[in-house]
Design goal:
Layout (H helix, E strand, L loop, with lengths): L5 E6 L2 E6 L10 H16 L5 E6 L4 E3 L12 H20 L5 E5 L2 E3 L1 H8 L2 E5 L3 E3 L13 H9 L1 H10 L2 E3 H7 L4 E3 L4 H13 L3 H13 L7 H12 L3 H11 L10
Parallel strand pairs: 2-3, 3-5, 4-6, 5-7, 6-8, 7-10
Antiparallel strand pairs: 1-2, 8-9
Length: 260
């Protein structure tokens, strides 16, 4: 599929999606959000793609925020619709993908950029990365899940401070907060993401999808995560991957998972 604002590249089991609007610091606009949805959907449906990496083009920004010019004159109704549609189309969609998604934060991740990174299953940052939710400085709040996912990741108090001050944290603070898993030099960022992706790909993609579903269930209102875990655990017993994994273990050999 051809894209105008992003680049999607597949190699060796990994699809790397790069937001490619460097003149706008990779800011998210309506078209880019739609293209990202399409690229994630395509990669998730590709049986050969075992891991997805999302990053930004250039060396300054992952995503420096949303394109404010698109919604500066919106009404209350339009603002609510913007948030609802964006969450459903991209941010919730990414969080609930069965294919693991790693955010490679290569610079500024602000507003919608940080919200996109937080939608991913985990995050790795370069040393020059800076993260924040500056929306209150514009008279609005994060609308793409930021007020929900940030407290889940770093705790209520720190999230409240970041949101209310509209301030940024650097990569070392993000690491100490638990917002990112690792921090490396920028030229090592994609390499580390690919190394971790390689470790993920050794395991059952079917089991990983069930694990994502089970972990996410703990953060959904009205859902009993333990019940989802029991269901997902049982589901695994009906897969070819389970048969291969247990057989390989008993035969003392490396498993060759079919992904079914």
């Amino acid at each position: 599929m051809a894209y105008e604002n992003i680049i999607s590249d597949y190699q060796n089991g990994i699809t790397t999606i790069t937001i490619n609007r460097p003149n706008k610091l990779n800011a998210l606009n309506k078209d880019t959000i739609q293209e990202l949805h399409d690229a994630f959907d395509e990669a998730n449906k590709d049986a050969d793609t075992k891991v997805i990496i999302i990053t930004g083009s250039g060396d300054k920004a992952f995503v420096a925020g949303a394109d404010i010019s698109e919604f500066a004159d919106f009404s209350v109704e339009e603002g609510g619709k913007l948030a609802a549609q964006g969450q459903a189309l991209l941010f919730d969609f990414v969080e609930n993908l069965g294919t693991p998604v790693i955010a490679a934060i290569n610079g500024f991740a602000l507003g919608g950029g940080l919200e996109l990174a937080m939608s991913c299953h985990f995050r790795i940052a370069s040393t020059n990365a800076k993260m924040g939710l500056p929306e209150t400085s514009l008279g609005v709040i994060p609308g793409y899940g930021g007020t929900q996912r940030l407290p889940q990741l770093i705790g209520k108090g720190r999230a409240m401070e970041m949101i209310m001050t509209a301030g940024m944290v650097d990569a070392s603070h993000a690491l100490s907060y638990g917002l990112v898993n690792h921090v490396v030099e920028q030229d090592e960022l994609l390499g580390l993401c690919e190394k971790i992706a390689g470790k993920i790909m050794r395991n059952s993609s079917v089991a990983i999808a069930e694990a994502i579903r089970s972990v996410n269930a703990a953060y959904k209102d009205g859902v009993n995560g333990f019940e989802i875990e029991i269901e997902s655990f049982g589901n695994c017993f009906g897969t070819e991957d389970f048969a291969e994994g247990t057989t390989a273990f008993l035969e003392k050999r490396k498993a060759d998972f079919p992904g079914r």
